[in-house]
From TrEMBL:
A Pfam family assignment: Exostosin_GT47
Record's protein name: Exostosin GT47 domain-containing protein
Organism annotation: Oryza meyeriana var. granulata
GO CC list: Golgi membrane
Domain (Exostosin GT47) ranges: 80-441
GO molecular function, one term: glycosyltransferase activity
Keywords (A to Z) from UniProt: Glycosyltransferase, Golgi apparatus, Membrane, Signal-anchor, Transferase, Transmembrane, Transmembrane helix
Family: Belongs to the glycosyltransferase 47 family.
Topology term for the membrane: Single-pass type II membrane protein
Main location: Golgi
Spans through the membrane: 12-35
Length: 517
């Protein structure tokens, strides 16, 4: 028997079926939005720095947060004019830390690069001081990390990931950031190995980089990157460097067009810009910095001068030999020293942030002779501890190297006025080596008031020489080393875009050939 249903029943069934289908689709979309994306999807949504596995990243924002962010971005769009940065996505084959994933056996080795670059490049947390106080207890229990000296590439990359004016529109960008890690790549190769092996990977990367659409407009002159070693390590002649440790990354035409940030530049022929080594202190608030400054200001300083370092083989750095000899022969209580000369034991001693900072924070003057090059990471440790640096070469001074960070923009000076701040001492090494002066005599001439004034200038520099903790929103108003560097880089990029900078000068302190020169 055939059933005959009224038309309104059929219409009702169609409506109910449509409603059920709509609910099913809505539930599927809503359900997916509740849970983090799988790592393979997350990596497509966010350009991951190779230092981090996807599991270390925050989960995707919920819809409400995303709407608020979109509104904030719309309101802040005008503030990003002239500040937009396009961040390149580096292919997997050029990424340095791909093995640093959760569960990797690499993390079992405390000296493996994965451990050294943990915590977004800050390194392992420095544990609380031992109860016996053998390492000193001046370092607080929070905000301090055993940061590797080559970590700035990773630290800088993570700060750039959080930059508020990143854009995916290449045409809108004032600058292009290149997140390649040339220092970590170079560290893969042992000294004395094949020069070709040390040079070919970076050459291959530059060939890839120069083939990208971002390169075409200005030939890479609007690109910037970090190379976390001294300029000299990347300016080696391949033919004559078979037994060396560096490569020729910065002598290639492509890298010569970019703005590259290194730990030390050639002050006689600038082709890159020097920025401070990362210190052990990575604050999360301005209050944390002020508290450390107060601690450094109040520290007892029984030593007149101090040195942390080692001799060089065959007396190749005579000034170091004389410093160690004079320190050893000084009367008790005059010179403090961490001798790094005794093989592995000495190396471990001088890698202890607590011992280094405790020594420098107990000292009036900290000696900073050249090492493998003019700038030493120890110079940054000196500032951090509020110790007055003593240099033995003009190329080691902050005024010549860290010009962006050395100057105090809060000091009211008229254009062209001389900066009379004094925070360091410069001693001619020939006078020391040839016996015309003794370091102790030179430093003893400063009065207590002069020392206090110089120390205060050093302590005021601390915020400009530290890198904030990029994992948290910084509490307070303070420009750190990254903020200062980035502001200067973007000012340079705008001048390049406007045609005001045409190239590098061949000599002198001025870095650029300007349009009207």
């Amino acid at each position: 028997m055939e059933a005959n249903y009224p038309k309104y029943v059929l219409y009702g069934l169609l409506i109910v079926g449509s409603w059920l289908l709509s609910c099913l689709l809505h539930f599927q979309v809503f359900h997916l939005s509740l849970f983090p994306y799988p790592s393979y999807l997350l990596s497509r949504r966010i350009v991951l720095p190779p230092a981090l596995d996807a599991s270390f990243l925050p989960p995707p924002p919920d819809d409400a947060v995303e709407r608020r962010r979109s509104s904030a971005k719309a309101e802040a769009a005008s503030s990003c004019d002239g500040r937009y940065v396009y961040m390149l996505e580096v292919p997997l084959r050029f990424q340095m830390l791909t093995e640093c994933v959760e569960g990797s056996p690499a993390f079992e080795d405390p000296y493996h690069v994965c451990v050294l670059m943990s915590n977004y490049g800050l390194g392992p947390v420095i544990p609380p001081a031992a109860g016996n106080g053998s390492d000193g207890d001046i370092i607080p229990n929070t905000g301090w990390y055993n940061t590797d000296q080559y970590a700035l590439e990773v630290i800088f990359h993570n700060r750039m990931r959080r930059y508020e004016c990143l854009t995916g529109d290449l045409a809108a960008a004032t600058a292009v950031y290149v997140p390649f890690y040339p220092a970590l790549e170079l560290n893969r190769h042992k000294c004395g190995g094949s020069a070709t092996a040390r040079n070919e990977p970076s050459k291959e990367f530059l060939r890839w980089l120069s083939s990208q659409p971002s390169w075409a407009a200005l030939g890479g002159r609007d690109h910037f990157m970090v190379a976390a070693r001294t300029t000299w390590m990347f300016r080696r002649d391949e033919a004559g460097d078979a037994l060396g440790c560096g490569n020729g990354f910065l002598v290639q035409p492509e890298s010569g067009n970019m703005t590259v940030l290194t730990y030390e530049s050639n002050i006689w022929e600038r082709r890159d810009f020097a920025v401070p080594y990362p210190s052990y202190f990575h604050p999360s608030s301005a209050g944390e910095v002020a508290a450390w400054q107060a601690r450094a200001r109040a520290a007892r300083r029984p030593w007149l001068f101090a040195f942390a370092g080692a001799r060089r083989a065959n007396g190749t750095l005579a000034i170091r030999d004389h410093i160690i000899d004079e320190c050893t022969a000084s009367p008790p209580g005059r010179c403090g020293m961490l001798d790094c000369s005794h093989g592995l034991e000495g190396s471990i001693t001088c890698r202890s942030p607590r011992r280094l900072v405790a020594l420098f924070a107990s000292t009036r003057f900290c000696l900073q002779p050249p090492g493998d090059s003019f700038m030493r990471r120890s110079s940054i440790d000196t500032v951090l501890a509020g110790c007055i640096p003593v240099f033995f070469h003009e190329a080691s001074t902050f005024k010549k190297q860290y010009r962006w960070h050395e100057r105090d923009d809060n000091t009211a000076t008229t254009t062209g006025a001389t900066d009379h701040r004094r925070y360091s001492v410069l001693i001619d090494p020939d006078d020391v080596v040839e016996g015309r002066v003794r370091i102790e005599e030179v430093l003893s001439r400063f009065t207590d008031d002069e020392v206090a004034a110089m120390r205060e200038e050093v302590i005021k520099m601390i915020p400009r020489f530290v890198y904030k903790d990029s994992r948290v929103r910084f509490d307070g108003d303070m420009r750190d080393a990254f903020d200062i560097t980035f502001k200067e880089v973007m000012a340079r990029m705008r001048r390049i875009k406007n045609g005001e900078i045409l190239g590098w000068k061949q000599d002198g302190d001025d870095d650029v050939v300007a349009k009207d020169s």
